[in-house]
Structure formats: structure tokens, C-alpha cells
Write a structure and sequence with these properties.
alpha+beta
Length: about 80
Amino acid sequence: MEKTWVSIPATQCANAWDNLGLGSTESNVTEYLKRFDIPIYDFKTEVWSYGPFCAACDCPSGIIIYVLIQNSDIESIESLGFRK
């Protein structure tokens, strides 16, 4: 089974998984993707900028979220805003 890293830039508070309230970003993203039958094999974040950023929910947070998924899930996860 081949796997690929995909990413999505996080926003201040407009991420689809923000309302799950499971504590960590990793737990929330994992649960969110599980609802679409997309298992995660690894997770990491990277700071791409420390700002300054606006405080609105849809403004960037400066963090990129990366998840490792099966290649067969690429089309599904891209429909959720993630990119290779």
C-alpha cells in the first residue's frame, strides 16, 4: 500500500475540525477525516510564518498541517481542501 503526504494550511478558527473539541489538533483532524473513511498513518505540523496575521477566523494561522494517507484516498481528501 503506497502512501502520500498531503497538506492544508490551518486558519485561525475556521477549520472544518475545529468544532470537534477533542483537545489536540491531531485528534481533531484524525476524527474529522475518519468521518470520511480516510485513515491517517502519520501527522505533523510546520510553522511557515509567525505573522503578523489578522484575527478573523478565516485568516491564516501560519501553520501547515500534513497527514500521511493511502494513495487511494487522495481524490477524497483533495475534495476536503488538502493538497499533494
